[in-house]
C-alpha cells in the first residue's frame, strides 16, 4: 500500500500484479501527480467556469479535459469542472497503474476512488462519512471491473447547497462519480429554518462557485423535511442512472437513506462502521 500527500491530494494506492510482487514506483507516481496538479493549476481559469460555458476543451491537457467532460455530462449549467477534480486525478493514476501491468489498482484520493480489477474475485471498497463519523458503506464488487466511487456531503471537503450527510455514487469513472455526487448532494436542498446558509465565498474565498448560497449546518430536521430532501436527491440520481451516467447512488439524510439499487446490481451494498476492518479501499 502506498500513501502520498502532496498539495491538496491525499492518496492511498493499493495495487497488485499477478506475475510478480512488484509495488508501484513511488517516484513515478509522484512525478505523475506533480504534472497533473500543475496542469490543473494552469487551466484553473477555465476549470472554474460553469462547464456548459466551456465550448471547446480539445486544447486542454487530458486531466482538465476529463474534468470538463464529466461536469458537462452531469450538470453543465450548475457544475464547474472542479466538481470532478479529485476523481479525475484518481482516474489518471489508476490508468497509469494499469499501463504498468497491475491487475488490481485501487486509487483513493480523499474518498474519491478509481478502481480496476482484472481478477475474478470480490473486492470490498469502504466509503466514509464526510463528517468523520463512524458510519459508512461497504460496497462489494465481483471482478473483473473498472469503475469509480465518490462521496459528497455536508461537512465534507467541498461546499454543498444540500443537506445530505452523504451521497455516494458509483459510475464508470471516478470523475463522473465525483461530479455526480456533488450534483445529487446539491439536489437535497430544502427550505427550513433549521438549515443555516451562507455565501460560498464567505466560507472559502477561493471557491469556484462564488455568489452561490451554500449550506453551513442542518439542525434536527422534521421527518417530512428529511423525506423531501431524500426524494429530491433520489429523483436526480435516478435521472442520472436512466441517462446511463451512473450505475447507482446512495443518499443519507439524518440517518435515513434512499438508493437507486435494485435487483440485478453487480454491487452489494452494506452499512459499515469505522471499526470494521474488512474493506480494501478505505
Note down, in words, how this protein is organized:
- This protein is of the alpha+beta class.
- Helix content is 31%, strand content 29%.
- The chain contains seven helices and 13 strands.
- The strands form three sheets. It has an eight-stranded antiparallel β-sheet. The chain has a three-stranded antiparallel β-sheet with strand order 5-6-13, with no helix packed on it. A two-stranded antiparallel ribbon has the order 9-10.
- A hairpin with a 2-residue loop joins strand 1 and strand 2 (9-16).
- Helix 4 runs antiparallel to helix 5.
- The longest helix has 20 residues, at 223-242.
- The relative contact order is 0.13.
Topology of helices and strands:
Layout: E1 2-6, E2 9-16, H1 26-42, H2 44-47, H3 62-74, H4 85-99, E3 104-109, E4 112-117, E5 122-127, E6 135-142, E7 145-152, E8 166-171, H5 174-187, E9 195-199, H6 200-203, E10 213-218, H7 223-242, E11 246-253, E12 256-259, E13 267-273
Antiparallel strand pairs: 1-2, 2-3, 3-4, 4-7, 5-6, 6-13, 7-8, 8-11, 9-10, 11-12
